[in-house]
Write a structure and sequence with these properties.
Layout lengths: L56 H4 L12
């Protein structure tokens, strides 16, 4: 189990086949409140353990950050 505070960026990568992720939100889903960071943003420099082979269109469409980034 992992606790992720509200507003804290998070991402997941399955390291084995047939993985499931289930998580609970503190509020009802509000699409207009969504924001995100690109998994491959060069400013963040995340080194994923495996090559990214599947990503949702939503997650792939997040804009890249620039030096003026103040948070989402």
């Amino acid at each position: 189990m992992l606790y992720i505070p509200e507003g804290f960026a998070h991402g997941f990568q399955c390291l084995e086949d047939n993985c499931e992720l289930i998580y609970h939100h503190s509020e009802f889903y509000t699409p207009a409140a969504e924001a995100g960071l690109r998994y491959n943003d060069p400013l963040i420099k995340i080194e994923w353990p495996l090559a990214v082979t599947t990503i949702s269109p939503r997650d792939e469409s997040h804009p890249l950050l620039d030096e003026n980034f103040k948070g989402v």
